[in-house]
Amino acid sequence: MSLSAFATAPVAGAIDTTRESDTDHLKVQQLSHSFRTADGVDVPIFERLDFSVKSGEIVSIVGRSGAGKSTLFNLVSGLIQPQSGHVRVGARKDGSAGRIAYMLQKDLLMPWRTVLQNAVLGIELYRKVKAADYERARQMLSRYGLGAVADAYPHSLSGGMRQRVALTRTLLVDPTLVLLDEPFSALDYETRLALEDDVMALREQSGTSVVLVTHDIEEAIAVSDRVILLGGRPARIEDDIDVRLTTHGPRSAVSAREAPEFRTFHSRVWNGLRSHTIQHSGATA
């Protein structure tokens, strides 16, 4: 198991960090990739895929199973090198290189480490952990309601608490872009809503950009500024939806779902998914 898979991913090869002034925290240009089967047949996953994510923007990617969503994350994070095309991670406001953090569905907490020790693990991959890092970790754990369990071990935590530790570990490396691969799918509904609020708070607190892969259409609409619908084989962007919701008070996981526009967006995504699933089934029948 690669630690970089759940902490931060190195950026190398065709994955570039830029120090130019740019409002995009992520830019994917002409990305193509395929897999070779055991009998030597190349199966295209993406062909000349293009999209970008602005600073502080939350974008969800939805698509049928097998559309290549997780593969796309592996390409963006540098865990897989693209066969052609470019992935560019935008610079910070001070001109220093941007950084990607990748959070998976499984929290991957190490049972022999305390909550606090798990939280600073991402930092350890880069350098020696300092006293200031532990203090910042305790402050962030407290912000997520985990201050009282900082010295406890993962086995004593609920699923939602474990995911908050994983989110803390992800954010402590100061990423400019966070990739979330269905991180809340195994949680109960109430906990999922709370963690969706945590994700939306990232923009307000630090201007961090977020790309979320999810099968949950409601989650995608509730938390996102845009929803990208992947379809076809090789996968292409079938729809790029600008989500604008009218909420009572600040937008939250609950108020977003109560917005009058919510069902319209839900129907648009659902009909797009259903259409491309039917087309794919017909093509492979």
TrEMBL record:
Chain segments annotated as coiled-coil in the UniProt record: none
Chain ranges of the ABC transporter domain: 26-257
GO molecular function, one term: ATP binding
Gene3D superfamilies: P-loop containing nucleotide triphosphate hydrolases
Keyword Ligase: no
Keyword Iron among record annotations: no
Keywords: ATP-binding, Cell inner membrane, Cell membrane, Membrane, Nucleotide-binding, Plasmid, Transport
InterPro entries: AAA+_ATPase, ABC_transporter-like_ATP-bd, ABC_transporter_ATP-bind, P-loop_NTPase
CDD domains, per database record: ABC_NrtD_SsuB_transporters (cd03293)
Family of the protein in this entry: Belongs to the ABC transporter superfamily.
Xref: PANTHER family: ABC TRANSPORTER ATP-BINDING PROTEIN, TAURINE IMPORT ATP-BINDING PROTEIN-RELATED
Protein name from the UniProt record: ABC transporter related
